[in-house]
Amino acid sequence: MKKLQINVLVIAIGMLFIGILAGYLIFRNDNPSQDEHQHDLTEVNGVWTCSMHPQIRQSEPGSCPICGMDLIPLENEEENLDPMAISMSPTAMQLANVQTAIVGESGAAKSVKLTGKIQSDERRIFTQTTHIPGRIEQLTVNFTGEYISKGQVIAFVYSPELVTAQQELLQAAKIKDSQPQLFQAAKEKLRNWKLSGNQIDQIIESGNILNNFPIRANISGYITEKLANAGDYVSLGQPLYTVSDLSKVWVLFDVYESDLSWIKKGYEVEYSVQSIPGKTFSGKISYIDPLIDPSTRVAQARVEVSNSDLSLKPEMFVSGTIKSDSKSSSNSITVPKSAVLWTGKRSVVYVKSSSERGISFNLREVTLGPALGESYVIESGLNEGEEIAINGTFSIDAAAQLAGKPSMMSPDGGVPMTGHDHGNMEGSSMPSSTNLSISENAKKALKPVYDQYLLLKDKLTQDNLDAAKEAAAKMDASLKQVNMALFTGESHNLWMGFDSNLKKALQAAQSSKSIEELRKSFQNLSKEMVTMTEQFHSYAGTLYVQHCPMADSNKGADWLSLDQNIVNPYFGQSMLTCGEVTKTLK
Length: 586
Fold this sequence. Notes:
By secondary structure, the protein is α+β, with helices and mostly antiparallel strands. It has helices at residues 2-28, 32-44, 90-95, 160-174, 180-191, 197-206, 393-402, 440-461, 465-480, 490-510, 515-536, 551-554, and strands at 48-49, 72-73, 86-88, 99-102, 105-106, 109-120, 125-129, 134-139, 147-148, 153-158, 212-216, 221-226, 233-234, 239-244, 248-256, 268-273, 280-288, 298-306, 317-325, 332-336, 341-342, 347-355, 358-372, 375-380, 387-391, 543-548, 557-561, 580-585. Helix content is 30%, strand content 28%. The strands form seven sheets. Strands 3, 5, 20, 21, 22, 23 and 24 form a seven-stranded antiparallel beta sheet that branches. The chain has a six-stranded antiparallel beta barrel with strand order 6-15-18-17-16-19.
């Protein structure tokens, strides 16, 4: 009986062991994929970030504290295609309005706009002189603009010397048979004073001495300058009038240094004359000045024009256009200006890379060639077939800066920016989305700032230092009245940078000792105002971004204007029309 109990106990213990082992084997592999999934989810989705602000890191889903977008799981850092590239999801690209284009080669051509005036052909300008010394008794042509014909009597002159010469002629005529040489010498003396043979014969036949002798025109044309009046005493060869033949005229166009490489002799020019609306003229450049005017910094290009109907008059204003090919290779790489970020020393673009794991952008430094209106020629740094960002580049660069990747202002990258830091922020060096919008109240608060800025610009065009400094002081006061609480989210951070930089520029403007110093401050001020307007769309009306290629020691500078016509604040009255409209902000 005791032996039977021991066997039952052994069997029970064995069955219990077998049950435990079977349960372990069954439940251990019950749902292995779920266990792995939970493990990966913990590793990958344990941190949540914002696609527009990658510096945001949270341990759970939610909204971005800056822009309010839904947070997304942070991707595994090991999956990044390039540690120096900035990755963007398709959703982030759409929100930032990022657009790309494939770089291709094309003929680099530029439409150069020129202004100028009609002038007289210098080869057809003559000086009408008197060939008789004496006193002007009468002028038959009394005002400028009058037309004279060759041989027409234009003045009468009394000359004592000529009276004496006539008396000598009459005395010599009496003894011409015995003294023929004396007679011929007397006649030759009168011929030297431009008396014709008929006039000399009439004096001899009549025996009367002429007191007032006529002066006849040597050329046909229009009187452009009157140099003598009745009663004046004139010497031999003294000018009486300046006469211009206007049957042919010159059209002289001003060509700035930056455009000289695009203009060559023989190029076709289409131009219009302000006083002859609705009509277009054309001609070829026949000559370009070899020297640049030191005061205006321009050379002149000449077009010779036939003017038989005299419709073209000297000093008329003209506007012309030349469609020119680049002096470099016929096939050049060109990119839109919106694709290029320029720091003053470096020019960069963002090159797109795509793979199965996503889209990323790499910073690429390029060398710019000449500007072609809304595009640049790329001398080096890009190859045909590469894809670059042409819109939303500020957003990509902002994401690169915040992530500590190479960016426009930090070519080697840096520590990622985090938190809400107001210190040392640069409005123009921390670009954000070009589609940022601010409230109507914020726009109204900025309206006085714009008004004083435009007034400051106008005073600089007038070379008025005191009035310009006063406008800068009023702009500073208006800026201080803007409530920073009107700017929320990402726009708040950017506004702090703009506000700081604008105040620095205005303080420098108010302490300027000369108009040149004030214009340098205005250059920094305009840079901030243009960037702010582009990013915030903060002006209710239309503003034109205008560019002067000669400003800042030929580096070029921008400013904002209400009027499309160029009135240059960087040179004022010395070079008032230098510049062009590069962008319209509405």
